[in-house]
Backbone:
């Protein structure tokens, strides 16, 4: 007897995002997950031993997530986390003269930065995997498919990732077809936006092309702070 897959929370998160989101849903879901993770961290975990140990191993957050953390404007939480980081760097700097010459000069950035271990990146990667797998599992289901048809589609980085993992030929054909229509509409919107910048047409009221220049950037590179 074959497995009957159950629609879990991840499926319903995807469906809701497809119906509501104005951007790539995978960007949207990852962004809100990582914001919730950082919010929760600042709210109750800045003194957590495990959190601080992971941060010591990674030498802090990567540049992207460190700046996201700052956006919460939580002085105390950030100060507690970064006191550790500054102290760690200070210890590293003080010990630098005693390191062998080779490590001192050639491998200096690598010996300090461990971006691949950024705890927020690790969390985001797990979250990405969960959403991509679920999207692939349910892409043939009518409700999800209808919502996907009407959604803004996936950004280029997420689309390439999903296409790289898709095994089912029909789903692949479907996905490419939808994305072709999304990118075609975007090209038309950009052309219309450009046309209306001409002084002869600038009195015309804005239509679907409004904001297409911003949408084009987030479709090409993903939503800000996601990649
Ligand atoms: Zn995306
Ligand atoms: Zn990171």
Residues:
């Amino acid at each position: 007897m074959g497995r009957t897959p159950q629609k879990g929370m991840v499926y319903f998160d995807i469906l809701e995002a497809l119906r509501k989101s104005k951007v790539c849903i995978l960007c949207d879901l990852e962004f809100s997950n990582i914001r919730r993770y950082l919010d929760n961290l600042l709210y109750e975990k800045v003194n957590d031993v495990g959190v601080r140990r992971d941060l010591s191993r990674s030498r802090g957050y990567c540049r992207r997530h460190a700046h996201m953390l700052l956006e919460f404007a939580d002085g105390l939480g950030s100060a507690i986390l970064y006191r550790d980081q500054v102290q760690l760097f200070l210890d590293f700097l003080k010990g630098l003269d005693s390191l062998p010459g080779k490590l001192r000069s050639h491998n200096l950035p690598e010996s300090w930065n461990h971006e691949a271990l950024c705890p927020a990146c690790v969390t985001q990667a797990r979250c990405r995997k969960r959403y991509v797998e679920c999207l692939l599992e349910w892409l043939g289901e009518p409700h999800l498919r209808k919502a996907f048809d009407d959604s803004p589609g996936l950004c280029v980085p997420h689309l390439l990732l999903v296409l790289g993992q898709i095994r089912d030929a029909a789903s692949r054909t479907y996905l490419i077809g939808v994305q072709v229509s999304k990118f075609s509409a975007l090209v038309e919107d950009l052309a219309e936006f450009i046309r209306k910048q001409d002084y002869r047409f600038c009195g015309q009221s804005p239509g679907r092309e409004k904001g297409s220049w911003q949408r084009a950037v987030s479709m090409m590179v993903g939503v800000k702070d996601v990649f």
Remarks:
- Residues 30 and 124 are 6 Å apart (CA to CA).
- The longest helix spans residues 169-197.
- The mean pLDDT is 91.
- Residues 24, 26-27, 154-155, 158, 222 surround zinc ion (ligand 1) (CB under 6 Å).
